[in-house]
Amino acid sequence: MKKIKSLILPLLLVSLVANAQETPEQKAARMQWFSDAKLGIFIHYGIYAVNGIGESWSFHNGQISYENYMKQLNGFTAKKYDPVAWADLIAESGAKYTVITSKHHDGVALYDTKMSDLNVVKKTPAKRDLLTPFYKAIREKGLKAGLYFSLLDWSQPDYPNFLKNKIRYEYKNDTLRWNKYLTFMNGQLDEIATRFNPDLWWFDGDWEFGPEQWKAKQIREKLLTYNPNTIINSRLQGYGDYDTPENGVPIYRPKSPWWELCMTMNDSWGYQPTDKNYKTPNQVIRIFADCIGLGGNLLLDIGPKADGTIPEEQVAILKELGRWTTKHSEAIYGTVAGIPREWYAGPSTLSKDRKKLYLFIDSKPIGQLVVKGMPNKVVSAWVVGKGNPLNFNVMMKPWWSSNPGLLYIDVPEDLLDEQVTVICLSLETPVQELFGN
Ligand code: FHN
Hints:
The chain is an alpha/beta fold. The protein contains 13 helices and 17 strands. The strands form four sheets. A seven-stranded parallel β-sheet has the order 7-6-3-2-1-9-8. The protein has a five-stranded antiparallel β-sheet with strand order 10-11-12-17-14. The relative contact order is 0.11. The mean pLDDT is 95. The structure holds ligand FHN.
């Protein structure tokens, strides 16, 4: 009895500490690595890659029968799965974290869950836990480990919903069965927290039920008890830490101080060979610049093939992204949102001390760049990644006037990057905070 007490007390204390009302300063500290990271790589890896069809949705919406969708289990080999090579490529892209699907809505777990046999170890030719070696490899590269988990599970017999037009039971008519599902789901959350200790929980599929039904508050408290430093995305029915706009670049700065655009490279989350509608590296880099300029992150998705190889189009984008992020790292990592678009007609970021302003030039300038409305005096200007000094001058600012004047900057064409050029303005004083950024 004494031994049990000696175990329970520390756990209780940890839980009380982890879930005590977190101050804004404590939350900012917990979110700091995420704010600084700017770029993550999303990975949708699952049996849906075998036929190259929509992940989970293809059976849910009736494009394929559930039985035929599940026959893909037999073709999921992960034969060429090389988590170290994946980690190398993710690190090369400039990403500082990655989020991999542990289980999508189809319920097929990529690790040997003890809660059901529906996993790639027991039911596919892969016959191995894919997550443990992946997290080992990315952590050895110094990356943060994110884990995607679908709260809904259309395969689970105790989950109410199954197909778009076919449910197993009405939640409100059988709360006992619903609680059986919650026990199953929480059993997976417990084993994941214990085995993988994610730095970031990327929940999905919360839309089918509300926070009370999911017991979302208790999930948050539990995960913060396992790891008080972990962070949780918005898809836990109001109990998350940051916003997750999807496949739509925010035009105006989101209200939340922390947000992340999750985006496909083509139009598919998983591997779909017929989907050749890839964004160019230039489009991806400009979307990334838009995100960081508005104070957010980009979570860029890849969809590996069933054998574990990554499609060549996706490798090419990650490599060019890596060239660009490496060259312009000082303008990216650890920065904060830049100046208003009324001041500079493009993306911009600021150093944390707000005395270095990075202007992203995402199209070939005709004539000089212009910055309007910024009262700060420029001490010097140069091309990021090359160092070449740039000439600049201020017009329409008579000595007696308090107007900021118009700042013009010469950017010679031979100094432009083939994708997006970045210049840095070193300022005499910090740029004032305009949006609480
Ligand atoms: O339904 C899922 C979808 O399959 C995919 O996983 C995306 C990724 O953000 N999330 C849900 C749709 O919002």
